[in-house]
Amino acid sequence: MIGRESAWAGLRRVFRLPGSPDRIAREVDEELRFHIEGRVEQLVAAGWSRHDAEMEARRMFGDYAAYRRQARDIDLITHHQRRRMDIADVIRREVRQGVRALWRAPAFSLVALATLTLGIGATAAIFTVLDGVVLRPLPYPSPERLVAIAHPVSGTAVTAGKWGVSPAGYFFFQREAKTLSSSGIFTTGTISVQAAEGAARVSMAQVTSSLFSVFGSRAG
User: Fold this and answer.
1) 153: CB partners within 8 A, 6+ apart
2) Inter-residue contact 160 to 154 (CB < 8 Å)
3) What's the rounded Cα separation, in Å, for the pair 186 and 205?
4) Strand 161-164 relative to strand 186-195, pairing
5) What residue ranges of the chain have pLDDT lower than 50?
6) Domain residue ranges in the chain
7) Is the C-alpha dihedral spanning 38, 42, 43, 48 positive or negative?
8) How far is CA 61 from CA 32, 51, 55, in A?
9) Model confidence pLDDT, tens digit, residues 104-161
10) Cβ atoms of residues 177 and 101 within 8 Å
11) The pLDDT value given to residue 6
């Protein structure tokens, strides 16, 4: 009996029409008209004329607009509460079924958990890189004015692409560029340095003095 009642409750939730303010207002009007017409029929059966019975029924009913507004507000509140309960019930049922399915297949559960972990970790790493490189502005004054210049290179698949500006190209831009307020060039690499603990390889960069004015900073 409990199973049959649960099944009927599920069917009622499946075939329940979606609520809307207009539909609820129509249902309230139909319900109020049903009560008024029932009173009219009673008065007509008692010997009243149809017109007098309708007038008397409406007088006895009271403020139709106020009752209609109150009934509609109550139905809207009830509808929202019922929808929240239905959603919570669906989520609870789906979570319970998912947990049971995962418990019955532990190998699949481990694979799914590992996949989710890797996916979430990769997404977080990609977002961190995008946030630091693309989304977050560069830590310099007027970062929107900074541009990078590169030379297009044609040739085989290994060499085709873009190369950095050569020293000759840098002097060319310094002399001929009219839209650049300042420019600089740099190259990076590694060098060996001698410390108290011994020699070590460290990263280094060779820059032109104009690069500091491009970034709006000073050499330390």
Assistant:
1) 159, 160, 161, 162, 163
2) yes
3) 7
4) unpaired
5) 1-15, 17, 157
6) 2-104, 143-215
7) positive
8) 9, 15, 10
9) 878 877 888 889 899 998 898 888 887 776 667 777 777 778 888 777 766 554 555 6
10) no
11) 45
Q: Give Dmax over CA atoms of the chain in angstroms.
A: 118
Residue type, 38: G
The three-state (H, E, C) secondary structure of the chain, written as one string: CHHHHHHHHHHHHHHCCCCCHHHHHHHHHHHHHHHHHHHHHHHHHCCCCHHHHHHHHHHHHCCHHHHHHHHHHHHHHHHHHHHHHHHHHHHHHHHHHHHHHHHHCHHHHHHHHHHHHHHHHHHHHHHHHHHHHHHCCCCCCCHHHCCCCEEEECCCCCCCEEEECCHHHHHHHHHHCCCCCCCCCEEEEEEEEEECCEEEEEEEEEECCHHHHHHCCCCC
Structural contact between residues 153 and 160, judged by C-beta atoms closer than 8 angstroms: yes
First to last CA, the chain: 83
Token duo for residue 184:
């600089």
Contact partners, residue 212, CB within 8 Å, separation at least 6: 184, 218, 219
pLDDT at 19: 55
- Report the 10 Å Cβ neighbour count for 57: 20
The pLDDT score that the predictor gives to residue 167 is 81
Which residues have C-beta within 8 Å of that of residue 207, sequence separation ≥ 6? 184, 185, 186
